[in-house]
Amino acid sequence: MSLPPWLPVLIGFAAAICTTGAFVPQVIRVWRMKRADEISAATFLLFSVGTLVWLLYGLFIGSLPVILANAVTMALAVTILFLKVRFDRANPLDRGHELASR
User: For 76-86, what is each residue's pLDDT tens digit?
Assistant: First the structure.
């Protein structure tokens, strides 16, 4: 049984929508709360680098789902990193207060 050529592309786009969309609630939450101290900068930095590599791979193989998903995912992950740096610098006392209360 042979698959229609559009089916793998459709599956790729479905996966891209799910995995990329998973970051949208995190960006919204960080933006609304104006804090990101529970987010690991190292994890999101490493994830962003990995996403960049996947984006390059998608460009090399010419896969539109891989290219689009990783371009958008990288933008969302970098946004979270940017907000983390911004809000951590804006709220330095919050981190000290949390450490003291443990």
Answer: 999 999 998 88
